[in-house]
Every structure is written in structure tokens, then in C-alpha cells.
Write a structure and sequence with these properties.
Helix content: over 70%
CATH class of the largest domain: Mainly Alpha
Strand content: under 5%
Largest sheet: none
Oligomer: single chain
Order of helices and strands: HHHHHHHHHHHH
Number of domains: 2
CATH topology of the largest domain: Serine Threonine Protein Phosphatase 5, Tetratricopeptide repeat
């Protein structure tokens, strides 16, 4: 979240390697849970699917019901993104309902955000926006606010897909995502929100404003496959350089 994507990967690989050596089921399951969450946070369903399936298989083999639900949630979302979004959405809704039935709202903002993502992919725009509003309310209720920037950015994407000729509401959501990320020091989310705004503004100009958002957001970040948005933002800045100078 703080822009240290390569370091996060090294730590995750170390945790998996050392955890597997312990033969301690709870440690191994927790590490695979966080690996799944890392891939989901990176918005990489192709990587999230095998990670979540491994978590699900391990949890079932060790009768760890809660971890199995986590595996079902993340694997359902990933299947919906890489395969059939309709099937993935139905499975995801069922898994999240099972989770909430445990009277547990921890991570619920993340889960409803994933539901909104698949609802948007199945052209259920109104439902997707309702899910975003619901999850923001839950985040406020339980104090789990680290997802707010992601949720506002996703809301902007949904609004823009629904009405690309009227981008004002999407712009407001992207700006909120950007402001929240800046306030929280979440540099990865700040860059993603800045990039969303840049792509919104680019067709209509605003080169100087795009530069003023992207350049600080990119400061100190090096391109990495772990976060392709960095290279995308750098390329956009290079393309805009003459216009932004002018």
C-alpha cells in the first residue's frame, strides 16, 4: 500500500517459505491467506486464483472453516475475472454470505468491493454502486478505512463506464480516492487514483494538471511487474512532457 511492491513480494515469499518449514497449520494458512490478499490488492486475478485455491485446499484438509471461506471468497472473485463473471459473482455472494453469517465484519469492505467489481463486469451497474455505498458505510462503522481509496476509485470506474459522456461524478470519486490515499500515506493507492484522473483528463487536455498529480505520486517509485501502474504513469508523463512544459 505504501508503494514498496517489490519489498512486499520478498517478504511474502519469505513468509511462505519459512512458514511451510514449520509444519504449523495456522501459520501456513495465515501466510497463504495474506498471499491471496496481496494478489487481490494488486488486482491480479490470474495470480490470485492459484493462491486462493491453495488456501482453500489447505484449509479444508485441516478443517479450518474460516480460512476455507476466505479461500472461497478470493477464488470466486478470481474465477469471475479470468472466466465467467456471472458464475464467479454467484459463488462470491454465497461465500460472503457464509462469512457474514459468522457475525464477522472484519474485511467486509474488501469483500463487498469485490462483489461490486463483478457486478460491474456483469452490467449490474446500479447494484455495483449500491455495493460500494454499503461497503463504505460498513468501513465507517467498523473503522476499517484503508479500503476507502480503492472503493472510491472503483466507484469512479463504474460511474465512468455507465456514462462516459458525463464524467463529473467519476471525477469526484477519483479525486476523493486521491485525497484519501494522500491523507493515509498509501502511495500505491495515490498513484492508482492519480492515474485514473490522468486517463480521464488526457482526452480533454489538462496536461499541466496531470503532470502535477503524477510526478509527485511517482517520486521514488521504480517500475516493477508487481505494480505495472508505475510504468504506465511514467510513460504517460513522457508523452505529456512537451504539452506540460508548454
Amino acid at each position: 500500500m505504501m508503494g514498496e511492491a517489490d519489498f512486499a513480494r520478498r517478504l511474502m515469499d519469505q513468509a511462505i517459505r519459512e512458514g511451510d518449514q514449520t509444519d504449523h497449520a495456522a501459520t501456513i494458512a495465515t501466510n497463504h491467506l495474506f498471499l491471496s490478499r496481496l494478489e487481490v490488492a494488486r488486482d491480479d486475478p490470474a495470480a490470485a486464483l492459484p493462491a486462493a485455491q491453495a488456501l482453500l485446499a489447505f484449509a479444508r484438509a485441516h478443517d479450518m472453516a474460516l480460512y476455507a471461506i476466505y479461500g472461497e471468497i478470493f477464488s470466486s472473485w478470481a474465477r469471475g475475472r479470468v472466466g465467467d463473471p456471472e458464475i464467479g459473482l454467484n459463488q462470491l455472494r454465497q461465500a460472503v454470505a457464509s462469512y457474514l453469517a459468522l457475525d464477522n465484519k472484519n474485511a467486509a469492505p474488501t469483500f463487498y468491493g469485490l462483489i461490486a467489481d463483478l457486478e460491474a463486469k456483469t452490467d449490474r451497474t446500479d447494484s455495483a454502486l449500491a455495493s460500494i455505498d454499503l461497503t463504505l458505510a460498513i468501513a465507517g462503522e467498523i473503522g476499517e478505512r484503508w479500503t476507502d481509496s480503492v472503493l472510491f476509485r472503483r466507484k469512479g470506474e463504474i460511474l465512468l463506464d455507465r456514462d462516459p459522456r458525463n464524467p463529473a461524478s467519476a471525477e469526484e470519486a477519483f479525486r476523493t480516492a486521491f485525497a484519501v490515499a494522500q491523507q493515509q500515506g498509501a502511495r500505491s493507492f495515490e498513484l492508482q487514483a492519480a492515474l485514473a484522473l490522468a486517463n480521464l483528463y488526457r482526452p480533454i487536455g489538462h496536461a499541466a494538471e496531470i503532470h502535477d498529480m503524477l510526478a509527485p505520486a511517482l517520486k521514488g517509485l521504480a517500475p516493477t511487474p508487481e505494480m505495472p501502474e508505475i510504468a504506465e504513469a511514467q510513460a504517460l508523463l513522457r508523452d505529456l512532457a512537451p504539452d506540460s512544459i508548454a
